[in-house]
Amino acid sequence: DAKTTQPPSMDCAEGRAANLPCNHSTISGNEYVYWYRQIHSQGPQYIIHGLKNNETNEMASLIITEDRKSSTLILPHATLRDTAVYYCIVRETSGSRLTFGEGTQLTVNP
Amino acid sequence: GAGVSQTPSNKVTEKGKYVELRCDPISGHTALYWYRQSLGQGPEFLIYFQGTGAADDSGLPNDRFFAVRPEGSVSTLKIQRTERGDSAVYLCASSQDGRSNQPQHFGDGTRLSIL
């Protein structure tokens, strides 16, 4: 699976949009981009995934660049409960494992 | 509906003992995964079951670790002759079908401490 690169930490003001970037320049055509987050003492929580089109659900939006070499997870109105480590993962359709990197520690400030 | 359930939530035992960790996946999910997470790091893959069979066990660190899923639902991760380095949070995840792009859903893990 392709490697991803994320900033180690980000801050965001409560009520503002949080935009979390991810680089995956070696992504191949059959690999999806997945986003998970992990709040302290809990298991990772699935957020969203996509192949090449932008995706939106009740939690977030995923914007994937046309060349698919990077993506951005958008939390439109961040709350204090969104403070967590956010992981961007690239995975083949037929792959088994999720390969987690270091992730981005997002801190939402009041 | 119910999510992935893992028991116990915490387990403390002495070095050299045998432990079993249980995972109840989401009902109807055919794929089940075990991961291990050490403090300050992301989860690391251990093993993947498709139905009753282990489709990929390449993440198991050594032969002290073994997992089963005899009826294609509940899975047990077994660790023999535990060592202090085995201390970690053991996470279980399930998905509808491991061969598709369906996401994996995680339990909250078992925190294992080896004294």
- Derived from helix and strand composition plus strand pairing, the structural class of chain A reads mainly beta
| N-end to C-end Cα span of chain B | 37 Å
Order of helices and strands of chain B: EEEEEEEEEEE
Order of helices and strands of chain A: EEEEEEEEE
Largest sheet entry of chain A? 5 strands, mixed
* Strand order across the largest sheet of chain A: 1-9-8-3-4
Would you give an account of this structure?
The complex is a heterodimer of chains A (110) and B (115). Chain A has 110 residues and is mostly beta strands. Chain A is 0% helix and 47% strand. Chain A contains no helices and nine strands. Chain A starts with 8 loop residues before the first strand and ends with a strand. In chain B, a hairpin with a 2-residue loop joins strand 5 and strand 6 (53-56). In chain B, the strands form two sheets. In chain B, strands 2, 4, 5, 6, 9, 10 and 11 form a seven-stranded mixed β-sheet that branches. In chain B, strands 1-3-8-7 form a four-stranded antiparallel β-sheet, with no helix packed on it. The interface between A and B is medium-sized, with 21 and 26 residues.
Characteristic terms for this protein:
heterodimer, A: 110 residues, mainly beta, five-stranded mixed β-sheet, four-stranded antiparallel β-sheet, 9 strands, B: 115 residues, seven-stranded mixed β-sheet, globular
